[in-house]
Specification:
Layout lengths: L1 E9 L10 E10 L2 E10 L8 H7 L3 H4 L5 H12 L3 E4 L2 H14 L10 E3 H8 L7 H7 L12 H15 L2 H27 L12 H12 L11
Parallel strand pairs: 1-4, 4-5
Antiparallel strand pairs: 1-2, 2-3
Length: about 230
């Protein structure tokens, strides 16, 4: 099962009011295990960066000025995403910006059926608790000491670890280890059987003395059923 963990950085909170996507980071998982494949890109939003947004992610107008437009890199992004499920924290926010950019490119939007929201999972597991990425990383012992500002790829890397924990990460690993141990054991038994010497079939036949003693015992029985006439 292939899944993509992703995060975005933007100029604000609402694409309908003119806010744009400026960074996306993606992590590939296969069967809940990171493969090492990633996708990361910055985009020129074609508008100024509000000070409040820059304070969150540190992406300035000067830094983004020479970055490509989203439309110029969209096919590379879509090729990485393929048709996999997409996992994000507060996923409707990220899906909203991604689909807005796709719409501006006259491309089909990503179906919401592909969305997996880790906030929704965390709310089910820990009702009433804090569900921010920072709070959940603390709960699950995920090191985020290097997270000074928000960054799409960095946050996606943290979210990948969190998602694995939220979906039973340690138990999944234990199960795989047990299955591997069982497989190795079965292979060892098969190898042992392959070199085991073949012995001739043993024949168990009653001796004449044993047959005589058996007949004498049967003669003492009172009307045994198998001797009665039908």
């Amino acid at each position: 099962m292939r899944e993509i963990i992703f995060d975005t950085e933007t100029t604000g909170f609402d694409p309908a009011s003119g806010d744009r996507l400026v960074e996306i980071g993606c992590i590939e998982l296969l069967n809940r295990v990171p493969t090492g494949r990633t996708f990361h890109a910055y985009y020129n939003p074609q508008r100024t960066m509000p000070a409040a947004a820059e304070a969150v992610h540190g992406l300035s107008d000067g830094f983004l000025r020479d970055k490509p437009l989203f439309s110029h890199g969209v096919q590379e992004l879509l090729a990485f995403l393929e048709d996999s499920h997409l996992v994000a924290h507060n996923a409707r926010f990220d899906f909203g910006f991604l689909n807005h950019e796709l719409k501006l490119c006259n491309l089909p939007e990503v179906s919401m059926d592909r969305m997996i929201d880790t906030v929704a999972i965390a709310r089910q597991l820990h009702p009433g608790a804090k569900h921010s990425l920072d709070a959940l990383c603390t709960r699950y012992g995920i090191d985020r000491s290097h997270r000074i500002k928000h960054g799409a790829l960095l946050d996606a890397e943290l979210l990948a670890q969190l998602y694995i924990e939220l979906t039973g990460g340690r138990q999944i690993g234990l199960g795989l280890a047990q299955e591997e141990e069982k497989l190795v054991g079965n292979m060892e038994l098969a190898a042992e059987a392959a070199v085991r010497p073949v012995r001739p079939v043993r024949v168990f036949t009653a001796s004449a003395e044993e047959l005589e003693r058996h007949a004498a015992f049967v003669a003492t029985l009172d009307k045994p059923l198998w001797l009665e006439e039908a």
